[in-house]
Every structure is written in C-alpha cells, then in structure tokens.
Amino acid sequence: MFNLSRILSKENSHIAAIDLGSNSFHLIIARWENQQLTLLDRLREPVRMGWGLEKDGSLNPEVQERALACLERFGERLRNFPSGSVRTVGTKTLRSINNSREFLALAKQKLGHPVEIISGEEEARLIYLGVAHCIAPGDKTRLVMDIGGGSTEVIFGQGMEPRVKESLSMGCVAMTKRFFADGKVTEKAIKKARIAAGQEIAPVADSYSEHSWQEALGASGTIKAVASVCLQAGWSDGEITLKSLEKILKHYVKHGATDIPLAGVSEDRQPVFLGGAIVLTALFENLHIESMYAADWALREGLLFDLKGRLEDHDIREQSVQALARRFHVNMAKAERVAVMAQTLLHQVAESWALGISDADKLLRWAAYLYPVGLDIAHSDYHKHSAYIVENVDIAGCSRAEQAQLAALVRCHRKSLREKHFVDVGTELIPLAILLRLGHIFNRTKRHSLPEGLEVSVDGKCIELKVAHEWLEQNPLTMADLESEVGHLKNAGYTMIIPTEE
C-alpha cells in the first residue's frame, strides 16, 4: 500500500519479503550488493491458514491467533529494518476471508510493517519473476507453476517476460480439506479429486495448448517435495513425470492415509502432500506436460527483486499504468500535462501537509494517466467508470490496496469530493485528490497557456491559490471551475481562497 508519510531508503542494502501462504508463512532476508542478491536468512512456519477458512468466509479465531503469533516472531527478526525495506503479501486465503481489513490491521501491528493482499495474477507474475531469476539467463520459452495451499499459479513465458498467467482455485490445503478431511485415502476419493482438479484446469487449458515450451519448471513446497520423492525413491535425478506421480498416488491408496511417512516429504507437509500431488497430476494430464524440474526460487524471491526495482526506480507499476492508459486510448500528452502540474504543486505543499514525496509523487502521476480510462465506456460520469476499471483490472505490480487508492483518486478527480469516498483507503489521500483536481482544472484544454508563477500554499485544511487575476479574467471557464471547486472542497472540510478582483 502506498504510504504517504514515509520516505523510502534507496541506500538500504538489506531487504526482506514475507509470503503469507495458505499453508505456510515464509520470511526471506537478503542483501543487495554489486547488482547481486545474496540470501541471508529464511524462516518458515506451517501456519496452515487455509484450514481456518470457514464456509462463511471468516477466519477461525484459533488459526488467526496462530498466524498473528507467527508474524510477531517475524517482526522480532525485522525489528531494525526501516520502513519500505520489507514487503509482505497475502495470497489465496487472505483474498478469500471477509474480515481481511481487520486481519491486516492486526498483522501490521504484530509485524511492524504493512501487509498487502495481491491478486492471483500478480502472484503469478511474482512467481515467474522469482523462477526466471534463479535459472540460467536466456530466451527459452517455459511453463512455470506453483502449487500453494489455496491456489495454483500457471504461467507461460519467455525469458524474463510472463505472457499467459492464470491463478486456479485449487491447492494442497484446499484439495485435502475437500476430499481427505478425515485423513483417509481411497482410490475413489483420489479419482474424485483428480476430476475436480481437471474441471478447474479445463477452462484455461486451451490458452496454454496454443504455446509450446522448451522447459517446465515448478516452484515451492509441493513440487520441490515431489521432486525429492522421485530422487529418494531412485526413480530419477529429481525429474518429475506423470509416471512418477501415478506411483505416488498408488502408494497412498495402498496405505489408506494422508499422513503416512514418505521419504523426501517433511513431517509438517505430510498431511497436505497428497492434495498437492493430485493437483500436479491433473496439471500434467490436462496440459500435456512430459517432464518437470523444481526451481529453487519462487514468489518470495520474486518479491525481493520487485522491491529492489521499486527502490531503484525500476518500478513495473509505471509500465503497467502506461499500458492500461494506452489500452483505453487515453490522451497521453494531456495526461502528462496534468501529472506534471499536480506533481509541481505537490512539491510546494509536501512539507506543510507532511507528505512523503516518493509515494505521493507516484500516486499523482499514475492517477493522472488513469482518470480518463472510463471515457472509453461513456462520457457521462466517466470518473465512476474509470474508478471501477482501475480497482478491478489487473495492474501488474500493484496490490489490491494500491489499486483501491488509485481508484479513489481517479473517482474524485472531478465533481463530488467527500470524506466518505476515502473511508476504505484513508483520508490522508484527500490532499492528493485536491492536487489532482487542480491539475485537471488547469489542463482541461490546451487552447490556453498555463499561468506563470502558479503557486499553492496550505495551512492545515486552508488552501490559498496564487495566480494572476488578469490570467483568470482571460480564462473565464477556468475561473468558473475554480469557483465551483471552492464548494466541492468545502464538502470535504477544506477551504480554498482564489484571487478576486484587485
């Protein structure tokens, strides 16, 4: 989530990433030196948050307490890490619970750093980023997948670029809860589970059959464990095939239980390993995968590279915003003019309003490019259409909270401005909305030149606009907009003074 009061440290060499998965929580710490990532520490706890997801969408209190206790321990390890050097993301279970806002607030309190929820597509992008960075560089086409506790991400890409991304609602915990909750295994139950997994894959299978890949790679716990089983059993050097997966399933049918010891599978993974193996078997069958190897890196390593990119101004979100604007035929020249003016005004008031330039600057720029996207749907109330698009479309690099913040600014760049529009994202965004509105007002048309020496000064919620009255007389439409703006700002609890006749 954008933090308007912080200043990110680009000089900090230690960074950390936390993956709040449905099965396990992972913390990874690294040092960035000479353009190389050196991993320093890893922590993993099998929290199994997915087991605590109730049918009504709530999170079981006992499981929530276990998750928060884990985050408190992680927080102790990260106590000396400055703001902005840690990125924490929640995946499938946190996407599914109905009290996520309450949990995120408690999680931030325990961890000492904010927690974000990312979409399935964003999770897939980060997984591919992590895998692509851990293998030999090149332009090979590859299929990458990660079987988590609650979801499975499947990505086709080439080199460092993911091209097809899907997040499927099946994982080792979810599959185990659905078909093997009592711990018993039968051939009939495995068959039902394989069919269910196949039904989940079928709608997207054609998207992958249109491509051919030179290598298939799997990431994270389930696939690493399957590769280890194949190696320990002497079936291969760690290569996974459909034949080896069938052997694993037959082994469970023979013994009739999910928690049987299996060489290559850790004790804490035993109860959910079968569910993950079934998901992988279905993927092999439906996507016609011949063989696969396990990769060492995945989502959390992808988070580290993504975080370092943000700190060094190589932010994937900039590209994503630009691409979305072009997709909806935004007038890019006008968007740039609005962005530049809003950012210029931001630098004039940042100190008075205690705004951190780094995140505020990005928010304003990206909102300036995205507020017109709704014009492709309709001109009437286009700001509402724009806000809906921004909040719900996939913007690579953005968390759900970040997209909600952008959507609020987009929604309020014109017309009504009230505190209720910012209840879910924070009223500290209102000052940015005001700056964006002024940027929009002064750039409504390019037929007139912008006023020289335009300045804004603020004192709390009082805003004084300094612009030559002569210019306003020559541009009556802008003057009328500013007079209307006085009323809109009043509804949000702000006052604005504009020049009157001298």
Written account of the structure:
The chain is α/β, with parallel strands linked by helices and 502 residues long. The protein folds into three domains: 14-119 and 301-309, Nucleotidyltransferase, domain 5 (2-Layer Sandwich), CATH 3.30.420; 136-294, Exopolyphosphatase. Domain 2 (Nucleotidyltransferase, domain 5, 2-Layer Sandwich); 315-448, Hypothetical protein af1432 (Orthogonal Bundle), CATH 1.10.3210.10. The chain is 48% helix and 15% strand. The protein has 18 helices and 13 strands. The protein has helices spanning 61-77, 92-96, 100-111, 120-134, 172-179, 187-209, 220-232, 242-255, 270-287, 299-311, 316-327, 332-349, 357-370, 382-392, 400-411, 430-442, 469-474, 476-491, and strands spanning 14-20, 25-33, 36-45, 86-90, 115-117, 141-147, 152-158, 161-168, 215-219, 293-294, 455-459, 462-466, 495-497. The strands form three sheets. It has a five-stranded mixed sheet with strand order 3-2-1-4-5, sandwiched between helices. The chain has a five-stranded mixed sheet with strand order 8-7-6-9-10, with helices on both faces. A three-stranded mixed sheet has the order 11-12-13. The chain is elongated and about 90 Å long.
